[in-house]
Structures are given as structure tokens and as C-alpha cells.
């Protein structure tokens, strides 16, 4: 997409939005058909993706707009059921683009495979034997997945850890082999599981122990993505609140989350409000990303804020988010679901590293959206107004009645299903 600024998109009908996108972007014939399709995931495809299929479970797919990241425009597909998430991300992205946009970076994509070894008669000797054979173990792992090596990736390093060193556990010490694998553009779970399973027999011989678990670690702390924004206070002014007040409120809110797990969990949930929808829309494994992100938020021993918010010497608000981002732009279900194919087409990313940077940026924007609302008007004003239509539907409204009931709920400041049911009954009579 040439631009992610699409003024008035919010006020268009769904078909108007689809038509506009189709004019703005070169979709393939298949993508264009799927964009307008009312059944984007066929039951046949679904039946091949998981087991015991009885149907599909669609989610709304919206577009996060206004994102400018490292000088590039991104229209960001977001699949999510919660109102206000897409609006808030787009609103903050607009503020940040006026401040020059987000800057991002990512580490190499190294994922970790674990092999658990128990019952070695001599733990130190077993560890030494594995370390001595490190290079040949790496070679064996790569022999199990030559196509990855041909792409420039593959197993790069191996480490041996001893667990339960000091503890009185029933079974005593165990060894854990860590295999570090550059998975290129794949998330890498299946690739790594294949590699570590292939090493298990050799590891048993070398350690004289028994191998139990051979699996990827979702704690992807060597596959990180970072995003940063710097915003002058003038862009944060909100109603009667000065930009400086909003900025300081956001820094106070960060300090609250940084020092209190009760707040941090909610603060971080708000970040995942932005991250999960993009992970889902791109066909990635959101449980994997969630697990890694929360573990990373506790890496210092106490669960804390995923983001940091501070002021720089010029008085600007500075926001940063760094997270493990074990997503792929190939493999898994990324190219299976027809809507995720459309998502990639619109995102126009060239690598999993680039996708990871976009995702972490949406998380940072989402966090700022929530904090800005919380330190000014409170979250309910915007959120409940957008939630009112879901409340009307839950109360049984349909067709034109949905908007009529929703408006009435907002007017009466009673955005509750009970009230909506009363209004539905009155409208039916
Ligand atoms: P795949 O098994 O689909 O492997 C990725 C495939 O992508 C490779 O086989 C490779 O094929 C192909 N490929 C094409 N281009 C590239 C490229 N540029 N870089 C890398 N690979 C490329 O998926 P993953 O191994 O990524 O595993 C992800 C899936 O595993 C997800 O669905 C996830 O839910 C699931 N999973 C997750 C677990 C967890 O999180 N703990 C555990 C088990 C599974 P080739 O080299 O043959 O051409």
C-alpha cells in the first residue's frame, strides 16, 4: 500500500471499504475474490487444518491505519472481537506519524529447541561428552533439515544446562540441551521439533541417560523485536488536559505497572490487545506469542510492564517495547487461511523479521492508546460508546435497530444489556 492514511475509512460501509482497498492495492484474482467473499475460510480447508471440525468461527477483520514504521507505510490487518482496539491503534498511529513515526529493529531469528536428559550416572561427564561433540551434534541437527540450511539458516549453537543443581528433587539433577536454530522466515516449531527429535538417540548414547522431552521452547528470548516512539507533548494535548499533563500521567501509569503485578497484567493485556489481532490475522500461533511475551515481562524476577515510558531531555514522551516475537511469514497456517494471504498482501512485508517489528509496534501503539485514555477521560467513554452496538446485538437487536438502540444507550448513558433489552421490546411494540 502506498499510504496507510485513508481519511474517512471509519465512516464507510464494509463494501465501500473493500472497493476502495481493491482500487488502492494490487490484489491477485484469488485474493480479490476472497476479499469480497462471505465465506473466507471454507469448511473443506478448515477440516484439513484441525480435527473434529463442525464449521468455522469467523472474527471481525479490521485495518489498523496510519502506521509509519522506519519511514514505510503499513496498513495492518487485525482480527479481533473487542470494540475500540482497531480505532485506538489507528488513532495513536496517527499521532506518532505526526511525530515522525515509529522506529524498530529486530535481532536475528534464533529459536531454541530443548532436549531433557535424566538418569545420567555422572552428570558432569555427560555434560562434558555433549560439549565435546557439540559441532557434530549441530551438523546432525542440520542434516535433519537441509532445506533450512540451504536458505541460510539452521542450527548454529548448542549449550548444555544442569537443572536441579541445589534442589532435593526426587530424581536429582537433569541435563537440558539447548539447540539454537536460525529458522529464517518460519516460526520454526515443527522444524526445531524435527531437529531435536533426530538428536535424541545420540544424546542418550553420549550421556548414558534417558531422553524424555524434545521440543521447542516458547521462551523465544533470542528472537526479539523492538519498537520505539518519541512524541512531543503538544501532540498529546487532550480536551482540558495539557500535553505535559498527559505525558506525565503516562509515565506515572508506567511506573505503576512496573512495580505492581496486579496493574502490570492489565497493562500488558492492553498491549496484547494490539499484538494478538495481527498475529491471528497473519495466521500465526498467538498462544506461542502470548506465552513468550508474558514470560519476558517477568525476566527480572518480578512480572512487570512490557513497555517503558519516560521523558527525554527535550520533554518528549518516549515509549519502547521489546518482546520475543516467534512469528513466521511462511509455514504453519500462515499461507493456508485465505484471509491471512490477503493480510500478507496488504502488509507487504518481506520477512518474518519485518512482520515481528510491525506486530510489536501495534502493541506499543495500543498501550499508549489505553494509557492516554486512562490518564485523561478514563477508558469507558470511548470504549463503551463503541461497545454499545455489541450490547444492542446481545439484547436481540438486528438490522437498523442495532444503531438506533446503540445511540439510545449512549444518550441515556446506560450501556447495559438489560437496558438494551427494554429498548428492543419497546421498539418491537
Ligand atoms: P512448518 O512445519 O510449516 O515449517 C516451515 C516450512 O516453511 C519449512 O518446512 C519450509 O519448507 C518452508 N519455508 C519456505 N520458505 C521459508 C523461509 N524463507 N524460511 C523458513 N522456512 C521456509 O512450520 P514451523 O516449523 O514454522 O512451525 C510452526 C507451526 O508449528 C505453527 O503452526 C505452530 O502452531 C506449530 N507448533 C507450535 C508448537 C509450540 O509453539 N510449542 C509446538 C508444535 C507445533 P522447506 O524447507 O521444506 O521448503
Automatic annotation (TrEMBL):
SUPFAM superfamilies: NAD-binding domain of HMG-CoA reductase, Substrate-binding domain of HMG-CoA reductase
GO molecular function annotations of the record: hydroxymethylglutaryl-CoA reductase (NADH) activity
Reaction(s) this enzyme catalyzes, per UniProt: (R)-mevalonate + 2 NAD(+) + CoA = (3S)-3-hydroxy-3-methylglutaryl-CoA + 2 NADH + 2 H(+)
Catalytic activity, EC: 1.1.1.88
Pathway(s) annotated for this protein in UniProt: Metabolic intermediate metabolism; (R)-mevalonate degradation; (S)-3-hydroxy-3-methylglutaryl-CoA from (R)-mevalonate: step 1/1
CDD domains attached to this UniProt entry: HMG-CoA_reductase_classII (cd00644)
Keyword Repeat: no
Top enzyme category: oxidoreductase
Classification via InterPro entries: HMG_CoA_Rdtase, HMG_CoA_Rdtase_bac-typ, HMG_CoA_Rdtase_cat_sf, HMG_CoA_Rdtase_CS, HMG_CoA_Rdtase_NAD(P)-bd_sf, HMG_CoA_Rdtase_sub-bd_dom_sf
Cross-referenced PANTHER family: 3-HYDROXY-3-METHYLGLUTARYL-COENZYME A REDUCTASE
Annotated family: Belongs to the HMG-CoA reductase family.
Protein name: 3-hydroxy-3-methylglutaryl coenzyme A reductase
Native organism taxonomy: Bacteria, Bacillati, Bacillota, Bacilli, Bacillales
Amino acid at each position: 500500500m502506498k499510504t496507510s492514511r485513508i481519511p474517512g475509512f471509519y465512516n464507510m460501509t464494509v463494501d465501500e471499504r473493500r472497493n476502495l482497498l481493491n482500487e488502492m492495492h494490487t490484489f491477485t484474482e484469488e485474493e480479490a475474490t476472497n476479499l469480497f467473499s462471505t465465506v473466507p475460510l471454507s469448511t473443506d480447508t478448515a477440516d484439513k487444518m484441525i480435527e473434529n471440525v463442525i464449521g468455522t468461527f469467523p472474527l471481525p477483520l479490521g485495518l489498523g491505519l496510519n502506521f509509519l514504521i522506519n519511514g514505510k507505510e503499513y496498513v495492518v490487518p487485525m482480527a479481533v472481537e473487542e470494540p475500540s482496539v482497531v480505532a485506538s491503534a489507528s488513532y495513536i498511529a496517527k499521532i506518532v506519524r505526526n511525530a515522525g513515526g515509529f522506529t524498530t529493529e529486530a535481532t536475528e531469528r534464533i529459536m531454541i529447541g530443548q532436549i531433557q536428559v535424566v538418569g545420567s550416572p555422572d552428570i558432569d561427564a555427560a555434560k562434558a561428552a555433549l560439549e565435546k561433540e557439540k559441532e557434530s551434534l549441530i551438523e546432525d541437527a542440520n542434516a535433519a533439515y537441509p532445506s533450512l540450511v540451504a536458505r541460510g539458516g539452521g542450527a548454529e549453537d548448542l549449550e548444555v544446562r544442569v537443572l536441579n543443581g541445589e534442589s532435593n528433587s526426587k530424581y536429582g539433577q537433569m541435563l537440558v540441551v539447548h539447540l539454537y536454530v536460525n529458522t529464517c522466515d518460519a516460526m520454526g516449531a515443527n522444524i526445531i521439533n524435527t531437529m531435536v527429535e533426530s538428536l535424541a538417540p545420540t544424546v542418550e548414547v553420549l550421556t548414558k541417560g534417558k531422553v524424555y522431552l524434545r521440543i521447542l521452547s516458547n521462551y523465544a528470548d533470542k528472537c526479539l523485536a523492538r519498537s520505539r516512539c518519541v512524541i512531543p507533548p503538544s501532540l498529546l494535548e487532550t480536551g482540558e488536559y495539557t500535553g505535559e499533563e498527559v505525558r506525565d500521567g503516562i509515565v506515572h501509569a508506567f511506573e505503576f505497572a512496573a512495580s505492581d503485578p496486579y496493574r502490570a497484567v492489565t497493562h500488558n493485556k492492553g498491549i496484547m490487545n494490539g499484538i494478538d489481532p495481527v498475529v491471528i490475522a497473519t495466521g500465526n500461533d498467538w498462544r506461542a506469542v502470548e506465552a513468550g511475551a508474558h514470560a519476558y515481562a517477568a525476566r527480572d524476577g518480578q512480572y512487570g510492564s512490557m513497555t517503558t515510558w519516560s521523558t527525554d531531555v527535550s520533554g518528549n514522551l518516549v515509549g519502547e517495547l521489546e518482546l520475543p516475537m516467534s512469528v513466521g511469514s511462511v509455514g504453519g497456517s500462515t499461507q493456508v487461511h485465505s484471509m491471512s494471504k490477503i493480510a500478507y498482501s496488504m502488509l507487504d512485508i518481506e520477512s518474518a523479521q519485518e512482520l515481528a517489528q510491525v506486530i510489536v509496534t501495534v502493541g506499543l501503539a495500543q498501550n499508549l492508546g489505553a494509557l492516554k485514555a486512562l490518564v485523561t477521560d478514563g477508558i469507558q467513554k470511548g470504549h463503551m460508546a463503541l461497545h454499545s452496538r455489541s450490547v444492542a446485538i446481545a439484547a436481540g437487536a438486528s438490522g437498523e435497530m442495532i444503531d438506533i438502540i446503540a445511540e439510545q444507550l449512549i444518550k441515556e448513558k446506560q450501556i447495559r444489556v438489560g437496558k438494551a433489552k427494554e429498548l428492543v421490546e419497546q421498539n418491537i411494540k
